[in-house]
Amino acid sequence: MRAGIPAIVICAVLSSLGTAPLRAGEAEVVDAKARCSQRVCTISATVRHDDTGWDHYANHWRVLTPGGKEIAIRVLHHPHENEQPFTRSLGQVRIPPGIDHVLIEAHDSVHDYGGRRFTLPLPE
What we know:
Blueprint: H1 7-17, H2 20-23, E1 28-37, E2 40-48, E3 58-64, E4 70-75, E5 86-94, E6 101-108, E7 118-121
Antiparallel strand pairs: 1-2, 2-5, 3-4, 3-6, 6-7
């Protein structure tokens, strides 16, 4: 028998982790709100990411139509290591006719768009 960690212990540890390691390090929109007037909105998105400095940080988020077409982007100009999660707004977002919700996704400088898309219903 070889020395080392028994396979049963490794399996138990890995199964207890679930899928969390697959999502580690990706920027994710955890909340969003919209204030709109005649199809022009101010959108506020709350982003969570384990920013570590200029080499790995959430560097923007974007607003998409339900079909995936980009309609606006909010650039994040610096890391937010000590402010997590953080909320930033983007005004003058023009919503195309016939759209009742948008998708918002965050981007980081290492993983691109890796986190889940956030679905934001728009006010009437």
